[in-house]
Structures
1.
Amino acid sequence: MRRTDVLAGIAALGILASAALAQDRQPAWVMTPDHPAPREIDAYRFDGVDYIDANEVARLFRASKYWRAELEKMVLKVGDTRVRLTVGSPYVFVEDQGANLFAPVRWGDGRMLVPVRLATDVLDELVPERVTWRTEARQLRFDTGEPNLLAIECEERSNGTLVEVRLSQPLDATLEPSNEDRFVVVVPDGVASDALLGLVRGAGLVDSVRTLQEPGRAVITLHLGSAGSARLVARTTPPRLVLAITEGVDEEIPAPEYDRGVVDQVPSVARIVLDPGHGGADRGARSSSDVAEKDVTLAIARVTRELLRERLGVEVELTRDDDQFRSTQARSETANRMKADLFVSLHADGWFHPSTSGFSIGVHRAEAEVSVAGIDAWGSHDPLAHERSEFFAELLLERLSETLPGPSHGVKLADFAVLEGTTMPSVLLECGFLTNSTDASNLADPGFQKKIAEGIVAAIAEYRNALAEGGGTAP
Amino acid sequence: MKGATVIMLAVLAGVAVLFFALRRDDAATVAPPTVGEPTGTRTVELFFPRAGGGIAGEMREVVAGEFVEEDVRRAIEELVTAGESGIAPLPPGTRLLNVYFDGEGEVTLNFSSDLRANHPGGSDAELATIQCIVSTLGVNFPGVDRVRLLVEGEAVPTLAGHVSLRDALHVRDYRETRKAE
């Protein structure tokens, strides 16, 4: 009986304590560009003033925390600015400037709690986002500015699905490499309207569209019911992004637009330089069965050379025809000296996990070329060559998609060393992953190497025809 | 026995009243939590390669130092240990030897030779390593807009034969491509 009494007493005390805490704890929701969906955080109300955990504030503002227990002071360092808080005081100091929160910083629930006003009136000034507190909804919002992504519409067509993103102003966007049943469009400087955020139902080939707001950009993900292909076109009148989704290649679907105003600058495609990556002591990526990238690339280059000569009658040069090391600069200089019309650097990829397989194409980043134009003789900096590089890369992806098992990882833009000095359209082809056992086995197989070569030859033939017929860079 | 029960409940009620009184009158008398080290902590978003390709950010709490160079070192050295994907973007044994800020937005990281010698190779893996380094700095250290990589104090053309390190890497060019998942 006595034991029962003690237990009953402890239970009663627990209930009373919990009830007291619950009285002050009132959940709130935070909405940031990274996580536009409301995320619940602990919040408290004391004497009519809303408080949140100082640790949560530090996380939201990406601040460093410095805590001096003996003085009960905390310093939040937001960027280079220090904000000093003292338990029991409503005054905070932003560097040397004082600010009044009109309610003291305090302890509660075993945490240091700060008035919400600290976020909206003080720290708000230290970050690019506008920070607001909606009392009734109990929402702390971080907004990036006026929306410029207004609406997304999916329209089913007889030969595919068109996805149109309506904009308030022209914006650039990129179609990021992704899975065949998922396409990701990144819109730098994009600010999605509230109505767009989250997941909405699609139409036709598109099951759903998810829009997320991230710092400095909007990200639109299209989920398809099955594998498909996508092309992205930015249009200016009216401003919009158009994505054409097909189950296969369909000429009626709008293709990327290229500048056709430079007809007279389009020569033939008569001289091609193939670059077998790595060589000598530089073995490149390796498979678990010790297949070396340098050997695979040389084999593919040789068979491609034969097919190009045989089928297209073009002049072909290799940057190396044996197992020797050559610097990236020496390779591109070979192509420049040859006055090549096209440069294809051949590689086999590697990844940290064996499950990744497939092929991709690298194109040198355009901005890097422009940034050194006219200053450094090293490098082409020719916008037309860059456009044609991207155009050829798209053709090559399409042709390889027909001949290789894939998946395609799309086009990567980076400062590729072997491409940065070339003066002609140039790409870096990653034929497969040596870190994937199936890909590695394929890459070492002469039959598979010939398939790759056939894809390259078909793409070059199409590229040559496109230039000859249109005079520009459009397909 | 009944009397004992009554006394017990009375004592508990007294304790509860005392609890409220203390809590309401002076919040500061509640014991401070055991937060932080004397030097503080910092929540950072670190970037790691994903198993299926691409990279993704993860939040981690790391010790914060008095100088930003220390913070950079701690953040970058976290990249030697695997993320949630089980993958580390920096090869085993890689050490960050020095960190320099030029005061104009460029930070130079000087790594040990392990960064090149132990790298698995392939342009995707090489690009991911660079993206993870650059993105971790770009996201967590406002003001950093260029990153220059050195190995054992020397400029190197590439890490694994593909991505040029001739110039400093612009954060805007190599910031990770976070997928909307």
2.
Amino acid sequence: MNGFKEKIRALKTEFPVGASALIPAIHEAEAVFGALTREAAVAIADEMGTRPEHVEAVASFYHLIKREGVGKFHFLVCTNLSCMICGAYDLFGWMKEFLGVEPGRVTEDGLFSYEEAECIGACDMAPAVLLNGERMGPLNTREKLGQLLEKLRKEAGNA
Amino acid sequence: MPETRIILEHVGKKDSGGLGFYLDHGGYRAALKALAMKPQEIIDMVKASGLRGRGGAAFPTGLKWDFVPKEDPRPRFVVANCDEGEPGTFKDREIVEKYPHLLLEGMLIAAKAIGADRGFIYVRAEYPRAQGILRAAVAEAENHGYLGENIKGTGFSFRVQVYAGGGAYICGEETALIESLEGKRGHPRLRPPYPVSHGVYGMPTVVNNVETLSNVPFILEKGPDWYRSMGTKDSAGTKIFTVSGGVKKPGVYELKFGDMTLRELIEECAGGVNGKLVGVIPGGLSTPILRPDELDVKLTYEDIQKAGSLLGSGAVIVVNNSVPVAAVARRSLEFLAHESCGKCTPCREGSTWLARLFREIELGKKNGRIEKINHILDGMRGKCFCPLGEGAVAVAGAFTSKYGEEF
């Protein structure tokens, strides 16, 4: 936690006004702890001279800030217009079928999680996903998704 | 009429993202020229070019710069808006991922014009790759003296920081973006005062879209007359369109304004429609849908407005018969309800009710729903705090008036 706090202090000096470092600090918490945990919010609040509730209140405004841990492979499945037109709801259904968990939950082996997302700016590869932040698509058949998940499983096994 | 690639000319070529490639293709020449000019001369050039904001609002760029108070000792800021959250839009992604120095050069020219020594690029959370590329490009430019202290010995200094958003559509609205940049929830501010006088930290701030700023180096280099020679009187230059949805060749297409109609863009550039054409959303999800018989409209701000919609961000979403149009309406309103920041009641409650009513229509419960929708629209129209709510009114109204029978 001390190293994390040090990083927050460094972030504060990068901006003309220290308060601007709050969202970068939250991103740092996601990178270090996998999510904005309560402990991370307390540490950020300490360094920023505010309350943990304020940190959490700001974080809760933003849809992609993780408040809970996700799988090793986390999918954001876009179902906005262009992806929907190209079959995103089928993709979302296959996701559930293959992984056997509800959106927002992590598979028992800790490998996978997924959630529905608004436009991810990958409309030229619809239906598209963000897999740990990387664009991927079109995932327009059941087979393609199955193969991708299999590949990721192998990758995790070899690691 | 073929594409006219000016901004996109080098996008996607081998190593197009690097500084070496950029300098080999004339990069930073316009900025060095600008650094030797008087700020007002730069502003006058951009004003004369007729450049308008490419993020959706189409406000004249030079005028925005000119509004920054001149005799004012406060520090100023340039902010590049790379929040690009309008569904269907991915043009700024193409620029910043494949040709990032063009944006940095545009920002540097803007900084000289308004006297800013700090700049931010606000990049949406969905674009981590773009964030990394931009951070690397900023570092590269600093290492070679094109950003940072005393740029190329001119005495002018400009520092750029990349700021990652958190996933909120409303942060593309410039005052919400500024709130977010200050470490807050992204609620829009009441205007006036406008950001040009009270922006980041209450200081004079110019917020421009990525594509807008990417036009600026070309205007400086080739002059406003050259720029004006493309397009129409009210829509000068080129525009990057992103076509997606039910088309054969979704992608990014740069055209002179007015060179093509919406139908030609879809047929000739994007390879035509998959399945049966139901409608086209011409400027991103928040712009009213056009029916198949309304597509012979020239691609300019003024022509699309005359046709009852907006050119918006240039995101053309082609709706085909793969899903019921009621589902498209429902999904559009769900998005706007989801992204409503909750600050004002008409938008927060209204968009939620609209989404619910379109969902009911989609499920076949049609009785009295259109009347209810119209009643809610009356309660929202002209009463929302920012364009998100007013956009919801226009979008929902277009679906009910144009597709009432299909519902």
